[in-house]
Amino acid sequence: MTDAAVGALVLFSGGQDSTTCLALALDQYARVETIGFDYGQRHRVELGQRATIRESLRQKFPTWRGRLGEDHLFRIEALAQISTTAMTHDVEIVVDSRNLPNTFVPGRNLVFLTLAAALAYRRGFKHIVGGMCETDFSGYPDCRDDTVKAMQLAVNLGMDTRFVLETPLMWLDKAATWRLAETLGGTTLVDLIVESTHSCYLGERAIRHDWGHGCGSCPACRLRAEGFRKYIASSGTRPCLTPTGA
Ligand code: ZN
After folding, report:
1. What protein residues have CB closer than 5 angstroms to ion ligand 1?
2. In this structure, are strands 208-209 and 212-213 parallel, antiparallel, or unpaired?
3. How much distance in Å is there from the Cα of 83 to the middle of ligand 1?
4. Tell me, what's the pLDDT at 4?
5. If you measure from the C-alpha of residue 92 to the centroid of ligand 1, how many angstroms do you get, rounded to a whole number?
6. Cα 131 to ligand 1 centre (Å)
7. How far is the CA of 46 from the centre of ligand 1 (A)?
8. Is residue 159 part of a domain?
9. 106 touches 95 (CB < 8 A)
10. Whether 201 contacts 93, CB under 8 Å
11. Does any domain span residue 16?
């Protein structure tokens, strides 16, 4: 179903989840733009993958080519200045007494959603799509459904608008997210996500696994690998992808 009257702004980091969200938005909306943030993250390599992914989507999916519009990248140095987390500083990733990993950047998604809404206001978008998920997430409180709903209320009150903050992955686990990608774009999209998206917190891209590039041991890699294994195990007919060693 395509809603030609409205478009969507997608929070696009270059990771698996946001790339799946981008594909879903391209399937649903006639006009789609992307927004990303450079906040001094250690895995800034993901930002470099954004252009690669956008170009691959254009090349491999002719229907989506005409729908994918501008990309917007904003620098938010304040997040790294304020926080001393493992996401922005070279420290070991550990879990605190509340079971919250120190990769948590306080306020990050609140800032992202506020800036996305500000851009959507200027660009005339009603729908803002994000890959937040609380099914098998890392425990980040700003990924919770209630947080996003509260942000929708806050930005709509603060800007006198009727934005809809969509989080299509909120109740999916990682295996279901891989399956959603296959539903949207077949194995072509799954292969693109494996090869080009980036999840690893440590920014590792030299090591290639069947589920993609990464260190294989950080929380993001473990989540992605486990989800991929479950997806392959449940898909039945789909052969395992062969690492290219790229
Ligand atoms: Zn990793």
Report:
1. 200, 202, 214-215, 218, 221
2. antiparallel
3. 21
4. 42
5. 12
6. 19
7. 12
8. yes
9. no
10. yes
11. yes
Tell me the C-alpha to C-alpha distance, in Å, between residue 100 and each of 104, 113, 137, 138: 7, 21, 11, 7
Between the CA of 156 and the centroid of ligand 1 the distance, in Å, is 36
Distances in whole angstroms, Cα of residue 211 to Cα of each of 25, 47, 68, 226? 23, 19, 26, 9
Range of the domain at 52: 7-185
Residues of the chain below pLDDT 70: 1-5, 42, 84-104, 136-138, 236-246
pTM of the model: 0.88
In a domain, 145, yes or no: yes
**At 36, which CATH number?**
3.40.50.620
What's residue 126's pLDDT? 96
Please give the distance, rounded to the nearest whole angstrom, from the Cα atom of residue 85 to the centre of ligand 1.
16
- CA dihedral (179, 180, 183, 185) positive or negative: negative
Q: Report how far ligand 1's centroid is from the alpha carbon of 22 (Å).
A: 23
Cβ neighbors of 146 (< 8 A, separation 6 or more) are none
Run of H or E including 34: strand 29-38
In angstroms, what is the span from residue 19 Cα to ligand 1's centroid?
A: 18
Q: How many domains does the chain have?
A: 1
Centre of ligand 1 from the C-alpha of residue 223, in Å: 10
Question: What ranges make up the beta strands (E) of 55-188?
Answer: 68-75, 127-129, 164-166
CA–CA gap between residue 126 and residue 162 (Å, rounded): 7
